[in-house]
Amino acid sequence: MNKNSIDPQKISGxxxxxxxxIGVPPEQLRKELEEGKFDNALAAMNxxxxxxxxxxxxxxxxxxxxxxxxxxxxxYKKLSGE
Length: 82
Known about the structure:
Blueprint: H1 8-22, H2 26-34, H3 39-43, H4 47-57, H5 60-67, H6 70-80
Helix pairs in contact: 1-2
């Protein structure tokens, strides 16, 4: 497995948890996220969090900074099984 890829079973588990929280079937959520559609996910967030998410999606440098934080790295390692 590629060092930068995440175990598909872990992704499915994460999608399942999120889909239950926002009331969208996991398959639909996966499809929408793969297509770059975040409407269902954003609808379940409070306004402040949704605004932050939109800002991050529209600013690749911000995403890069966020992903380089120790917390993001730890989450990635947990999800990828490292």
